[in-house]
Specification:
By secondary structure, this protein is α+β, with helices and mostly antiparallel strands. The protein has helices at residues 2-25, 69-75; strands at 35-45, 52-57, 60-65, 87-94, 102-110, 113-116.
Length: 122
């Protein structure tokens, strides 16, 4: 009985990090509503599990999570489109804690061109 309990506790302990990772990369940390921000890209890190843009929005620093490389490509983004110094507009779901200044981008605009990362999320 003690051995079975030990195995069950060990299994639960090994699953906990995976559950946390899934929650982070899903939508659970967002509000479910949308915000619209326009700013200048300060830093870019594209890749898996998703891209991260640091943008300056009227003096406030925001973190914008864009899609995985395949999702960005499917939306029509090309290498170099998301680069330091580029002005962009993002529409997406902000963190439930707005002081976190983080948004999961559903759509973005470079100039007048729209790129839809998550169709049907509006």
């Amino acid at each position: 009985m003690t051995r079975l309990l030990f195995i069950a506790v060990l299994a639960l302990g090994l699953m906990a990090p995976a559950v946390g990772a899934l929650a982070h990369h899903g939508w659970s940390w967002t509000t479910g509503g949308n915000i619209d921000l326009t700013g200048i890209i300060e830093t870019v890190r594209l890749g898996n599990p998703h891209g991260i843009l640091k943008i300056d929005v009227e003096g406030e620093k925001w973190t914008a999570e864009v899609g995985q490389p395949w999702r960005n490509e499917r939306a029509g983004l090309k290498d170099g489109d998301l680069a330091e110094g580029v002005e962009l507009r993002v529409i997406g779901e902000p963190a439930a804690d707005i002081s976190d200044r983080r948004v999961k981008v559903e759509r973005l605009f470079l100039g007048k061109r729209e790129y839809v990362l998550y169709p049907g999320r509006d």
